[in-house]
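SAMPLE LOG
Freezer: B-3
Tube label: C17
Construct: single chain, 484 aa
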Amino acid sequence: MEIYKKRFFPPALITLALAVCLMPMTLGAHKTYIALVSISILGLLLYSLFKQFEVTILSLLVFRSFLDVFSEFHIPSVFAIGLDILAIIYIFFLFIGKKKIHFDRFGWIFLAWVLSQAIWPLLTATGGLELGKEYLYDSIREWMRIFSWFVVYLISSQFKDRIHPEQVINVLFCALIIPLFAATLQLILPVNALPEFLQSTSSPLFETASRINGTLGHPNTFASFLVLFIGLTYWKMGQSKNTMVWGSFLAVEIFFLVSTKALFSLPMLATLLLVLIIPEFKVKSLIGILFVLLLFVALFASSEFGRERLASISETPLLNPDMTLNRAILLSWSDGNSFNWRLAQWNFLIEEWKQAPFFGYGLGLARFIGPLRNYAHNDYVRVLVENGLIGALFFLLFYFSQLAYLVNQYTSSISRVRKKFCLCLIAIFLATLMGMVTENIWTHTTFFFYWWALVPMVSFNWVNAQETEKPFTPHRRYQSNVQS
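STRUCTURE (predicted):
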């Protein structure tokens, strides 16, 4: 954490301390007082941003991981808007000061896609979609959420040539501290002994209080967040001399992942680990992954809730040949089987999509469609229903561009550390695509917040002075030939 050594109390940390202390005081206060406090914090952060850019932004990135539990008070939304304002002001001053603004070629693709998503709120506003103008607020809010991801990408890109990417990633690991501490409390304390904001916010339809969510709003959100950091930890384990330390931390993360009772995280974890070992495939690595996955299933099945979840799979058309799709949909109203419920939800949404096939119903509005009035629980169905065939094409092009960009950075990298980091992001990316099949990954704002903070790092300069000055030493097998 060398960047924090410049000052013992950097302005960003003082501001964040003020935010933590003052915001709870304003939750029940008058709106005018809340506005004044928010403006004061924004002003202090703006001052801090120009005094110590790296420390301020990294502190804010770390700070984001424990805001979801305050969603009831719209704190994450206020945070996102504040960060957008700070970033835009900072970039504007870089522009008028004729200073370099780092923005790689993928950034333009990202910007084009974000702007293309604005078509749907405009269509909602003009009455061009099936759902009326009364849904405009929800559509604009969804677009602002997507725009905030782009802002994170843009502001993280400005770390280039200022700070080594490994330092950035090391600091981001601090974002795990509070969520894991909260998750530990949820594991060891009874529910009624926990603060209200740490009590499980799971839907009573399928969930139980035995699931943990840390400081993230839902156990599933916590699970995707952990999968991302499991990928980063695996990468760190391969780069560090303290392999045992990182290996132990990896085991801790997987333990908490199992404790979320999020079954969709199992195929995500399997995809992540398999992709990570492909370039240097070894049988013992495959055996190790199989052991981890079997241990995951064993721990998952150690609770009554986990056993019920696993058993419910056998009562779906996937594993039961006597179970037809229509019967599964009928049973979903009464059997409490979340897998059959998902099949029913997808079927209802696709039937609704047929009424608006080209432009869909509007950005972020899938949960208002169909008899169940819930999230799609499949991001591919979601984008088809919300954006239609046109939006689905944009979505697929954008995701293909992401993958192509990461693969290109991987193949063209001359730094071994950077190459493995690119592979780590590719693995996380493919694991995310897997998770989107049965989960609302798209709604996991915290996951994408950190994802888009990491992606710019692949285009940074990873070769430090020591690495460039180190003389080339041939493998011992060839040293005798070189000397002769």
